[in-house]
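User: Could you check the structure of this?
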Amino acid sequence: MSVNEKNALFFLLMLNQSAHAEPAVEFNIPAQRLPAALNQLAKQGHLQMLYDGPTVQGKQSPALIGHYTAQQALQNLLADSGLSYTFTADRTVAVKADTEKPNSTQANTLPTVKVTDTRLYDATDPYNTDYTLPNATAGTKTDTPIIETPLNVQVISKQVLKDQQAITLGDALKNVSGVVVTPITNLGNNRFDNGGISATNITLRGFQSQTYFRNGFRLQQGAGARELANVEAIEVLKGPAAVLYGLVEPGGIVNVVTKQPQATPYYSFNQQFGSFDNYRTTADATGPVAGHEDLLYRLNVSYQTTSGFQDFTGKDDVFVAPVFTWLISPKTQATVEFEYNRQHAGIGSSLNPYINGQLLDIPLSRNYGEYSPAVTETFFGGINWSHQFNEDWSLKHRFSVNQQNFNSPSYLQPSGVFGPDIFAAIVGLNSAPYSGLPVIRQSASNVFQNNTYSTNLDLVGHFDTLGLKHTLLLGGDYYRINNLGNVIRPPVDEFSTIDPFNPVHPGVPVQLTRNETILNSQQQIDQYGLYLQDQIKLPYEVHVTGGFRYQNLHQDIQNIDTTGEIALSRTVQSQDAVTPRFGLLWHPQQWVSLYANYSESFGVNTGLVFISEGNFASVAPTSATQYEGGIKTEFFDGRLRATLGYYDLTKTNTAVSDPDQTHNCGQGPGSCSLAIGEVRSQGPELDIQGEILPGWNAIATWANVDVRVTKSLDSNTLVSDANGNGFKVGDRLFNVPRNTASFWSTYEFLAGDLKGLKFGGGVNIQEGAIGAGGLNFSNTLPPIKVPGYATLNLLAAYSRHIGKAKITLQLNVDNLLDKRYYTSINGSLNDPNAQIFGAYAAFGAPRTFLGSINIQY
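Assistant: Sure, the predicted structure tokens are below.
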């Protein structure tokens, strides 16, 4: 071979080697625990990883900053760890131990790292930036992969909360189809104002609820205003959930998963600032206590102050949540957790005059009431422990207490716009100080206390029978709920007034010299439940889930006189029911599942049925049945998930007014009910969330909710909802839009000069609805309508590593086009005979800017 031929051959060999050489990738991974570092290496290097979770637990990794090939990055990250790696495929890496000796540090760490399918996953890693989480506990209580759960379960990750700068639970739930959050509009109506002991309703599949769950623990009040400083993720289980959770509305439940202690120290500080003097400071710290690896802590705190976009609705909000975990042994651990939240707020008035069939075009900032301070104070405490008997059987026990107190000593809020004749008749004056229509304000002093006590015991076992794999759950729970309420107001002939067109505060006082107690109530509810659930994996990737619950309820409701000793009225109810659930799922390929389920639920009616004179009984409990089917898909190794489902949900035995107005059930003629009403909700739902390409995340939702009354005694008998609103057959439920949709997307540059830059945005769309109380059943007046709307939101952020710290600057703009819209309308009145005009219309927030500086290390 000639010299030229040898040179040519050498050149070709070098060219071929260069063509197949692995390119270097820029990595920026701080020193931290090894599972979290491997998670970031897989994400930044676009790798798939396999490993046995306990093998890497308790190990630390050095920092990895610079340009490396995948092999170089792995060698540096695994140095001195006693682990090695092999490439099982082009971009798939298996990490394993060099020796089979057990890891001595395994007993001192929490089992938080899992291998899901083919990718490394640590859902609780503070640095985890995924939009999708593979598992959820809300559907089955057994931490089952969502792709293998025959129920419609959606999860909002903490990264979504960070990107959208969500402050309350109501902010976060717009990322799930079929969920609408609406304020209780006579108490408060803006993003920064809780405004009362239960400021919002959560509507799932058309049914309202004020209940949400915290790590599976039932909480009755303040759902939409729940602080998110210590929230790891938010799970939404759609459809009846009575089998595992007892008495809940059939539309579904919301479960808040809180942050737990970590074995590796982590610290975060976040300062937010924005429109309406909104300042919010949060901090997060976790790690071993004083170097003891068997005793871990986590502390989340936040403080927020804001003036709100409505006059007189400023708020100060303090939140503290410490958690301690004791790793007693490799198989036993105990956790003690607390929460304290104190909100001092001005109660917002959402009264909007409704004159001649139209809402008055008033400024968003207008408040017809005066400054009405209120304090909501919440204490939560809980202890839970678990023991792993062996690889297959475990036991978990929990006891929790939640106490919430609401006190508004000076409450002056509008009750309507009265015509001159009725105003003169009530107040004893002629036409007030103006010739127009005065806004009537009534004073009140409100004191409420709500206490919830709970204990729960779950036994989980894994075993095989005849080649079938079982996951068995056997459990029981007990709840005691005590509610106390006291409302003091002046007599009906004592009011304060203000001009609806040109309000000048503090308005015109009219007497306001006498007070009387109009409500003094006590309520005690005892709930007992036993449940059994079996998840069976059959051949050909068929999964069957079945179970049932026995529920027993005892309820004692009393209205007490002003002395607090004599019961003016009392209702005692004892009810029980058995509710089943069955689900079937086929998982033929890793990326797709087909599912169907049938479930039932059990609810409470508070009315009374007439039997004979002086003899009446409790209304039978409500029940609900649901049929649902759909398809779930996962792409890109589970980083992108989509769920398309269709449900048919019917709530039966809803209370209707007894048509015989002579029947007296202790509160006068016409006070009896019958449990014969029926409400049906049905429609399709679509949820898409996750990573489309590296750095590109998106969320898309759509729901078509057709919820209406389908059965009553006759065409003139009204069916009542939980708020006392009346409906005829064929009527849609109030404040439930037929169509809702949302889209949110972000893109982050992962390499190059723009690395760390993120931008995004989204849109929230809601079709119009019928306002509550807006229907006139004589059909002489048109119903009041809640107009549909669409709002645009934007995000811009920049992150950079400085030493071991990651610093992020972020700006969010909500309602970019400053759209004027209502989220709901309640209590609308337009009666020419009574000359009362008014509606409680909840304004959506105007254009809002919210910036933040975040430091984590």
